[in-house]
Amino acid sequence: MGNLANIYTDLGRHAEAEQLKQQVLKQRATILGANHPDTLWTMGNLANTYTHLGRHVEAKQLKQQVLKQQTVILGANHPETLRTMGNLASIYTHLGRHAEAEQLKQQVLKQQTAVLGANHPDTLQTMGNLANIYTDLGRHAEAEQLKQQVLKQRTAILGANHPDTLRAIGNLASTYSHLGRHAEAEQLQQQVLKQRTAILGANHPDTLWTMGNLASTYTQLGRHAEAEQLQQQVLKQRTAILGADHPDTLWTMGNLASTYTQLGKYAEAEQLQQKVLKQQTAILGADHPDTLWTMGNLASTYTHLGRHAEAEQLEQQVLEQRTAILGANHPHTLQTMGNLASTYTQLGRHAEAEQLHQQVLKQRTAILGANHPDTLWTMSNLASTYTHLGKYAEAEQLQQKVLKQQTAILGADHPDTLWTMGNLANIYTDLGRHAEAEQLKQQVLKQRATILGANHPDTLWTMGNLASTYTHLGRHAEAEQLEQQVLEQRTAILGANHPHTLQTMGNLALSYQNLSKHVDAEQLYKMVLEKQISILGQEHPNTVWTRKALASLQEEMQQMSESST
Q1: Which of these, 270, 258, 254, 259, lies nearest to 537 by C-alpha position?
Q2: Can you list the domains of the chain with their CATH numbers?
Q3: pLDDT in tens, 209-221
Q4: GO CC terms on record (predicted)?
């Protein structure tokens, strides 16, 4: 029965697994006693199922009960006791209690090293788990160091192609991604994928998992078409092997939908996310973490579609459920609060956005520390809100503080650092300090082009921002030249109808207008407007902007015509 329950778990049928494990637990407790090792083992397995079901509080309660009994019966240093302590630490991580998780993992690591040895598989597993906690705490350098140590030992003991070694390589690749070293992450993931495909086969769950991770790296590198292709391949295989309703299949569908968003295929993204949400709600329940995650992603798609009221409604629903289930201070709850604040910004409700960002900042500072990447990100978002409120001095001061800390902690070339530099440059623009804005944007552009490549979306975005600064400086010919370059690359990479491509066309039309190329500007505005109405809809903010710009141009042309007659 226990083995069948484990099969149900592998199939994603967690409710059936729970029912069977509860039955096994009841019988074992009756026959063997509540403290028998087999009974305790079943309790631990049931706790794992609670984790899969997103019921982390129940999982914690059960693991604590098992740990207490194992400590009394087997001793504090017994391998099973230590394994349970490690599992309990993982549950603390799910609950957002990273400091407690770290403390417990360090305790387990110390005891396992003393009892089992530094090279024992359980010890190395704990080291890897501790490294993951360091990642959650934003201590990526420590995580990298620990993961490299695990990888070195596993390679020496198990060999380069052992599943545990390959898992360690994949974990190290994940840390490289957090450090903004996406090219290194890609190289490592391709290595893992090649070996897993050869050893386990193309359809093995671990192989498919690696393919999904590689697709995520392609997204970070701005190679969205490759990400889409890989995710579609993973989705096809998971659907065939696991079924359309398996949690892993649904997760892949959600990732593919996110890629559609990056590609500007918002209608397809919305359709896929709604499908995933419907299935997750039916299978996992409305309050399951995966279901809430999909709701948040759907809200993000609504934002891209300019449907901010719908996004707000969905984010408030997610926030209410996460607060009730995880608590007000859980990282996922705080992330939702930040997303809701961003939606308030889109709706022009800047005072509410400020209040929410300040609340998130206070909690993240208390829980994660002032220098955690998530804390710094919130500070930057708050600074942007200050800009919308016209509090430019406060915005500048905060962005400079964030930039200083990110440079020290993450490095001058980290994506987050460069993003903050761009935000600071925008503040300089708002303050009319265009020369300083130009200098900073050129610096960001140079670094992004070197690190990410000339065609990366972030590089192109920076080029567009620099062109905007040229416009403010009255250097319209330079702005035109830069926008034409961005347009050419975006058209080639994203397609002629992508929202970002259309936005660039609109900016280029404005440059034509500033250069008195009114006929060219009018023609381009009309082309953009027609496509935006078709793709984004009549009421999308981008469509509204283009319509107003075209009307302004035509009014200007009419006045010029009248004055010349």
Answers
A1: 270
A2: 244-347 (1.25.40.10)
A3: 999 999 999 998 8
A4: cytoplasm; kinesin complex; microtubule
Cβ 27 vs Cβ 67: under 8 Å: no
What would the pLDDT profile of 410-424 be if each residue is shown by its tens digit?
Answer: 889 888 899 999 999
Residue identified by tokens 């049928």 is 13
Secondary structure string (H, E, C) spanning 515-553: CCCHHHHHHHHHHHHHHHHHHCCCCCHHHHHHHHHHHHH
Say what the pTM is: 0.84
pLDDT tens digits for range 456-483:
888 999 999 999 999 999 999 999 999 9
- Cα torsion 276, 279, 281, 284 to 10°: value is -110
Q: How many CA atoms lie within 13 A of 49 on its CB side?
A: 26
b/e per residue 470-496 (b: at least 16 CB within 10 A): bbeeebbebbbebbebbbebbeebbee
* Percentage with pLDDT > 90 across the chain: 56
By residue count, the chain amounts to: 565
Token reading at 42: 């079943």
